[in-house]
Each structure stands twice: as structure tokens, then as C-alpha cells.
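Sequence only, no structure available. Ideas?
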Amino acid sequence: MELVEEMGEKRVVVDKAYLYEEDKPLTVCKTSLFYTGDGFAAYDCHGDIIFRVDSYGPDTRDNDEFVLMDATGKCLLTVKRKRPTLHQRWEGFLGERSDGQKPIFSVRRSSIIGRCTMEIEVYDETGEEYTIDGDFSQRNCLIYDTKKRTVAEIKRKVDLSMNVMLGRDVFTLEIKPGFDGAFAMGLVLVLDQINGDDPVEIGDEQVHPFVED
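Reply:
I predicted one. C-alpha cells follow.
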């Protein structure tokens, strides 16, 4: 698949501050290893936190709604499951969602049975559409546009110093030039919920993010 390389073709959905001029790999860590989807942190190659989703545990938050924040705690995006729905449709709202607010995008399974692709529709003047293909439970996904150009990739993370593949609770989100990183991280939250019944591999000890060479 062709990569998005032309910076003139920018895809701002959530915040233009998260558009990058070159490939931007983020290390994404589950901050709780006990409950699906209730905590994430994303770090850049310098070890600085870029995004976070705080963990509140299974009894103290709405499991159908999650808020993506920046490093300072500013609300960037809310993703919420739309009910009732056969295709596990989720919707994204700018900032912290309020009653009556209109979504800026939606994500849904392309089929109600079996493993399938995810279809994304952006609600703006462009009406841009994207597809997610792969297996998120194995941290192996591509996000691409209608021209089959890869805009983001989710993959297993390798510790180069030890030449070992880390567990699935730590993985890489690689954002291609011109694509909205906050939007991409919001899609990770949705994927984690849709694939929530898949087992999460937990190693003997929690792995912390590290600075890459």
C-alpha cells in the first residue's frame, strides 16, 4: 500500500497540533493490566507523554464512553458506543462530550459476525472514509484511506536492546505524515473496546516505556 507522503494533504479531524511532518511512532501502554480499555498512555521516542486515558476501574465509569486527553489533562476527544447497534458502532465527539453534541466521526464493524474490517466515516465537508484492516488483539492493524494509502499502523513493539518482542499491553502506534495523531489514538480506544473479549497477554512483570535510540 502506498504511504501518505504529501504534507499538502493533511487530515485534521481532532487537532492540527498532532499533525507530523514525518513518521511519528508512539509507544502505547495499557496503564491497567486487569480491565480492558480502562487506561492508556502514549509516549513519544523521548519518553514524553503525548496522550492518556485515565483508569477508573470497572465500577466507577461508563464503559461505553472514554475520554482521550493530552499530557496536561485537556480533553481532546470523547468516544462513545452508540446503542442499540448490531455493528458495534462507536462515535467520536470533539473535546468532552455534552448532551446534544454532534459526532465528528463514527467507526463500525463491516460485518456483525466473524473477524472483519472496521469502517470509519468522518462527518465534515470532505466526508473522508477510512478502513482498519488486521487483528488488533494481536496488535497488527493498518489504517488506510479510500486510495489504499496507509495513514497509521498498529504493531507489536520490539525492545531493540534485547531483541525481544514485548507483550500486547505495550505496542507501537505509527502515525504517517499529515494524519491526525489524536484521531488515530481515538481509533485505538475504539478497537480496544470492540476487541475487548480477546485475551490480553500479561507478562511476569509490567513493562514501562523506554526512550528509543
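Confidence is low (pLDDT under 50) at residues 1-8, 197-213.
Hope that gets you unstuck.
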